[in-house]
Amino acid sequence: MPMKFFPDLGPFRSSPFRTLFFGQASSFLGSWIQNVGQGWLVYQITGSPFWLGLFGFASSLPLLLFSLPAGAAADRFPRRRIVILAQAAALLLSFLLGILTFFHLLSLVTLGILVFSLGLSGSFELPARQALFLDLVPKEEIRAAIAWNSFLFNGARLIGPAAAAFVIPSLGVAACFWANSLSYAFSLLCLLRISPPPQRSPGKAFFRSLREGVLYIASTKALMGQAVWIGLVTIFGWSYTILLPFFAEGVLHSGSRGLGLLLSANGAGSLLGSLTAATFVRNVSLPRVVSGGIALFLLSVGSFALSRSFPCSATLLGLAGFGLVVFLSAANAFLQEKATEELRGRVVGISALLFQGLFPIGSLFAALSSRSWGAPATVLLGVCLCACGSLWIGFRCFSRTARSGWEEGDRGRS
After folding, report:
1. Would you say residue 2 lies in a domain?
2. pLDDT band at 220 (very low <50, low <70, confident <90, very high)
3. pLDDT tens figures, 170-192
4. Of 8, 267, 270, 25, residue with least CA distance to 129
5. How far apart are alpha carbons 233 and 318 in whole angstroms?
6. Residue 142 vs residues 76, 137, 262, 298, 311: alpha-carbon distances, Å
7. Is-contact 203 74, C-beta < 8 A?
8. Are 345 and 134 in contact (CB under 8 A)?
9. Which of 13, 40, 54, 403 is 20 to 30 A away from residue 6, measured at CA?
10. Is 4 a domain residue?
11. How far is the C-alpha of 14 from the C-alpha of 148, rounded, in Å?
12. Could you give the number of structural domains in the chain?
């Protein structure tokens, strides 16, 4: 196959895909504005990295608890309907959070309940939305559609925190939550305009179909290796993001604007990584993309933990975002492109469990470790653990037996 040096625009030939793409762009942007506002609000109330980690745990705990049944639900019930209901619930919860914040009626307990509820709606929305994305394109465009979905998420990571950095000082934290409500309103309008293709139900008992999805991943050495690798990076590598408010204020002394700029730098690198994945993921060997991405990510995050210069820290976060997205795009492409349409929701649910569902464990690790040893030492410890595990999994994945699984997937795409 000849090498292409521009992003694969094939999925955009589908009008429903284009409509869903722009609707979710709005939703992702609002969610990132709210994420920054939520983290800043918690840090202003408590002044503690421990509480940052604890609220990160509360917001992502539903993904850990419900990703697998949500994936099975996405295969059993209409995916578009699930996404509409989940986003409507998130709209109302974000609006309520803004009202309580504006009138100073928000306690830590109430905030925790609302954050958990938003996470619950997101845990059912995520597998249904990602599977719906792939339903709208032909099978040969699945890798490109996954890369463009990653581009959406990371484009919002670039713009959302930068917007929040100006919204918080000028309009207050409550405006971040109301902006998220508006973003969901636009997304819902787009969802109502699309008509996805007919969806076949698995025709099996709910828990039997759930078990089938888990066994599907576990049955292949290469698939299982990739799944474990994603989970490892989520727990010990990606959890550094929970501590960024502390780094912005306590280490780099840059305040809320500095936090927004650090997150935007991370998002800029992630956005560039998404474009790189959209350009090369169909043409470059997936094992090389995975190993190169994780190496860059770990080196950058480890250096960030040692940095005391704001420009240097922002640059390192950009490189970390680039490496992480390249790694995840290749790993998720390998998992999801091998799934049949009937299994797609369950595979996406398992992927969500591994990447975002395990994030509460990473948040708890960050909270407890930072309380004992401080935030910089916590990030370094996570990088070391992640690196050791990655080396072991890499050798296991790229052994002669496992490598055949990779190569079969690549040959199917050539």
Report:
1. no
2. low
3. 888 999 999 999 999 999 999 99
4. 25
5. 17
6. 21, 7, 32, 28, 37
7. no
8. no
9. 403
10. no
11. 13
12. 1
